[in-house]
Amino acid sequence: SLFEPVAGELFDHIVSNPPFVITPRIEGVPAYEYRDGGQVGDSLVADVIRGIAEHLTPGGAAQLLGNWEYRSDSTGLERVAGWIDSALTVGPNGDSVPLDAWVIEREVQNPALYAETWIRDGGTTPGVEFDQLSNAWLDDFEHRDVTGVGFGYVLLRRPAPGTSPLRRVESLGSGNSAGLGDHLAHTLAAHDWQGALDDGALARAFLTVAADVTEERHYWPGDEDPAAITLRQGGAFARVYPMGTVLAAVVGACDGELSIAAISAALAEILDLATEDILQEVLGSVRELVVTGFLLP
User: Fold this and answer.
1) Calpha distance 228→18 (Å, rounded)
2) What are phi and psi for residue 87, nearest 5 degrees?
3) Cys-Cys crosslink for 228: which of 51, 218, 236, 281, Cβ 3.0 to 4.6 Å?
4) What is the C-alpha separation between 221 and 277, in angstroms, rounded?
5) Residue 97 and residue 14: Cα distance in Å, rounded?
6) DSSP single-letter state for residue 151
7) Distance (Å, rounded) from C-alpha 286 to C-alpha 118?
């Protein structure tokens, strides 16, 4: 148990690169302590996620790497979400609540490629021994109906009083790894900021477009109106966010000088629409753009 040395202790921040590599538990397959926790499949990562809840202070966060198995009856991300649902802690009212969570899957490997990756990592080169180890890995995966293995980041947080629940489970590329730590912190702060505002308060907010964000427009030849409009993030996870013309106009006017409500009122007059209809159309996207770092309070 990775938590045995700290039984009963609480922490503001837990960081772990646990020995999560999935390894067949049969004779002849070497176990390397730096990567292999001695458990079957991805159960070590499941135990870490479930065990973190009782070691975080209110508002405390945990960040870890991990592998999770895709099986014939469930995706890897569905399984991770289930582990998080069972990682319960005590809420502000004394009730049991799951941890806040943000799961980011960087890649999914098929079983054969996963086996090859870690066999090579152990120093075994192609040959008879390599083939024997590969067969052991593939037999182990087949025994649990494993169809692939996901790899990524998990950020968990014990909810603090007054914060809105956080649950993001998504597949993303590796992005700008040099700046991900700051981005994760900003995302948590942005999530809490917008979560504390109802739609009316959010509409009264003044926002600016982040400095790394660009807009792309694509046209069918000869057309005056764009067929597709997207926002592209230059840093963080290099997200791409599709927009309609109304949302694009709202985002384009976010320079900190006007509130979302004022921008929507001006657009309503130009487009002969009701301000309330524009706000209803864009506010959900505005929340997402704030959380993911396209728009800044």
Assistant:
1) 43
2) -90, 80
3) 218
4) 31
5) 19
6) E
7) 42
Element (H, E) at 134: helix 128-143
Can you tell me the distance from the alpha carbon of 157 to that of 289, in angstroms, rounded to the nearest whole number? 21
Name the residue with tokens 């198995």.
Answer: 69
pLDDT in tens, 48-83: 999 999 999 999 999 999 999 999 999 999 999 999
Q: Which residues contact 99 (CB under 8 A, 6 or more apart)?
A: 52, 53, 56, 84, 87, 88, 89, 156, 157, 158, 159
Helix (H, G, I), strand (E, B) or coil at 77: helix
- What percentage of the chain reaches a pLDDT higher than 90? 87
Report the C-alpha gap between 133 and 116 in whole angstroms. Answer: 9
Contact call for residues 71 and 150 (beta carbons, < 8 A): no
Which residue type, as a one-letter code, is found at position 276? E
pTM over 0.85: yes
CB environment 57-72: b (16+ within 10 A), e (fewer): ebbbbbbbebbbbbbe
- ∠251-252-255 over CA atoms, to 5°? 90
Element (H, E) at 58: strand 56-71
